[in-house]
């Protein structure tokens, strides 16, 4: 039960930061997205985000910061295994399943439902 509560709290805090950035700054959603992914990558490379993941579980890995963390983790792993080439392939390899799932389910939803234009 504590695992679910920690995931909810950590994920909620990350999302709350995003909402505050949307409400209180002039940053566009695209810039906030880049900021979150970059922050996750930097914190992941420094080993700091792993501690957040250990506490928050899916609450830390599902948001955009978790995507950046996953990229950094994959790149570091592949650099250890394949050398410099791993810096270019590791992040893609680590994030491939998540990206594939997002594209696949997005496509299924676009086939299943007909979107309507906003008026």
From TrEMBL:
Q: Note the coiled coil stretches, chain numbering.
A: none
Question: Which InterPro entries does this UniProt record tie to the protein?
Answer: Spore_V_AE, SpoVA
TM helices/strands, residue ranges: 6-22, 29-49, 92-113
Q: Domain of life here?
A: Bacteria
* The entry's keywords: Membrane, Transmembrane, Transmembrane helix
**Protein name, please?**
Stage V sporulation protein AE
- Source organism of the structure: Pseudobacteroides cellulosolvens ATCC 35603 = DSM 2933
């Amino acid at each position: 039960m504590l695992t679910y509560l920690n995931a909810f709290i950590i994920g909620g805090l990350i999302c709350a930061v995003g909402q505050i950035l949307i409400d209180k700054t002039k940053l566009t959603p695209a810039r906030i997205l880049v900021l979150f992914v970059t922050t996750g990558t930097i914190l992941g490379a420094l080993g700091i985000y792993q501690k957040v993941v250990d506490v928050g579980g899916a609450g830390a890995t599902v948001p955009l910061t978790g995507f950046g963390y996953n990229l950094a983790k994959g790149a570091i792993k592949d650099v250890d295994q394949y050398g410099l080439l791993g810096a270019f392939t590791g992040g893609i390899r680590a994030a491939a399943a998540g990206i594939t799932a997002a594209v696949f389910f997005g496509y299924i939803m676009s086939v299943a439902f007909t979107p309507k234009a906003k008026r």
